[in-house]
Amino acid sequence: MIPYSFRLAAQSILHEKWINFLSILTIAACLLITAFVAVFVYNVDALTKKLPEKFSMMLYLKDNLPGAGIENILNTLRGDDAVETVKYIPKDEALKELKAELKDATYVLEGLDENPLQNSIEIKLKRSVLGPEAVKKLSTKVKAIEGVAEVEYGEKFLSAIYSIKMGIRALGIIFIAIMSAGVIFVCYSTVKILFYRKNEEIETYKLIGATKGFIRAPFVIEGAAIGFCGGLLSLIGLLSLHYILFLELSLSIPLFKTIIFPSQISPLLPLTGLLLGMTGAVIAIGRIRY
Amino acid sequence: MIHLFNISKHYENQTALRDVTFSVEKGEMVFITGPSGSGKTTLLRLIYLAERPDEGTISVAEWELGKMKESSIPLLRRNIGFIFQDFRLLNNKNVFENVALALRIRGVDEKELKIRVFDALKEVNLRHKSDSYPLALSGGEQQRVVIARAIVSDPTIVLADEPTGNVDSDTAAGIIRTFKEINARGSTILVATHNRDLFRGTGRRVLKLDTGNLVGQEAG
Fold first, then answer.
1. How far does CA B2 lie from the centroid of its chain?
2. B180-185: long-range contacts, CB 8 A cutoff, minimum separation 24
3. Is B90–A4 a contact, with Cβ atoms under 8 angstroms apart?
4. Chain A partners within 8 Å of B104 (Cβ)
5. Which of A183, B18, B136, B195 is the most exposed, having the fewest neighbouring CB atoms within 10 Å of its CB?
6. Is the dihedral of CA A73, A78, A80, A83 positive or negative?
7. Contact at CB, A208 and B105, closer than 8 angstroms
């Protein structure tokens, strides 16, 4: 039964080549756009994942804290699961760094009798705790440690980055869902047309005792094949554009070099096309009644 | 083999069958006759569950059709060979494929399928036309392709709706001869026809329908 269904599907694809060709092109365009959005979302995600390397939390210590007290704080922080690295910065060193940063504007520090800065600890966080809520929770926790005067981190900046990331991800998912629905609709329409065209033939199948599976199989295979071909075509388009943009244009526009192309998207495109095509076909055939 | 009890079927503004009761025993060959619109086609359609009766019960072989689930209908139909009045041949497939279809839906393997299709075509004297397409055949040849498709699976029951409606008298005689041969091999045959010449002298049972009523039976 299966090989015969494949044969029927192949015959139908060849017989109705124009309608199938147009459907394949439409699906390819939809999947190509979807792939672009997926690559964009992936890159935004990758970019925000690099944040821990740059993000740090500063803990300012109370004045006159004895060495044992500082050591105690450092040990407490090192023992925290959320903390990646801990660095103690004595206030003299901090002043030296400040002067180095101010360069020609060191006059602002003139007239000060004593170092106005505090001893501080810089901590870098693990990737897993980089959400605004988790960081806020951690800051409250470390602020409660005996000897810590103040905790500072880019709360608003972190929230903004996180919101942008989540927003882009949500938009990406919505867009991909819409495009997927579009692909399903194209396959649905194509198979529906073919199904109507073969109405008489299907009636004959039913009357001579064909099962629903036997009737459905060639249409589902055809839908899957159209989806698969659309996916394959979009993959060829994506790889071509990848070659042109990332490999050719990046020589003159270095920005393109920073874009990451997730290689796992390659097998996913034809597979997604196949699954969406099958779904469209199954919906198009609907319930068969005897 | 086929039992109809108090069968009635109504359409919007007319009654197709009224209180029809009869039985066809296993291995019998029975004719149903009557003028156009007498309910012959409706009767056959009820037997292969293309429609359901409004009243009464039908049983075919071991199946009580009123209790039959939709998913079991293909099973019933695989036991029946149909000869449709309008042929129902697939014009985009050649004669071989049209006949083979009845076996393909049963999942018969390719080697056995070829043997059985050519045997069936030989039986209706159309082996030489296996590569032809239906539209290139005469009405009589198309009729014989339909018969080959109906008998290729060795069905227990053969239902024929006006099987000689499009053929000359010689071809009609040939078709009846084929039916007798199939019947001799054990198939139960029910033939609906308005052509009285078809059953005259056959000695088979003839059921008479008129405006949906079974008005009598005689020997042909």
1. 13
2. B180/B29, B181/B123, B182/B151, B182/B158, B183/B27, B183/B29, B185/B154
3. no
4. 1, 4
5. B136
6. positive
7. yes
| The residue type at A262 | P
Architecture label for domain A56-152: 2-Layer Sandwich (3.30)
Say if residues A52 and A106 touch (Cβ distance below 8 Å): no
Tell me, what's the ipTM? 0.86
In whole angstroms, how far apart are CA A193 and each of A8, A23, A26, A48, B219? 16, 12, 16, 46, 51
Structure tokens that stand for B83 in this block: 């000869």
- CB contact under 8 Å between B48 and A207, yes or no, is yes
User: Among all chains, which residue has been given the structure tokens 């080959």?
Assistant: B148
The DSSP symbol for A248 reads I
Do B105 and A209 make contact, defined as CB atoms within 8 angstroms? yes
Q: Which of residues 3-62 of B touch A (CB under 8 A)?
A: 48-50
Residues of chain A with CATH 3.30.70.3040: 56-152
DSSP single-letter state for residue B94: -
Ranges of residues in chain B with a pLDDT under 50 are none
Q: What type of residue sits at position A94?
A: A
Q: Which of B59, B64, B77, B67 is nearest to B21 (CA)?
A: B59
Nearest neighbour of B104 by CB, restricted to A4, A200, A203: A4
Q: Is B31 helix (H, G, I), strand (E, B) or coil?
A: strand
Contact yes or no for B104 and A1 at CB 8 A:
yes
pLDDT band at residue A43, thresholds of 50, 70 and 90?
Answer: confident
Q: Which pLDDT band holds residue A80 (cuts at 50, 70, 90)?
A: confident
For residue A10, count other CB atoms closer than 10 A to its CB: 14
Nearest CB to A207; choose among B82, B92, B104: B82
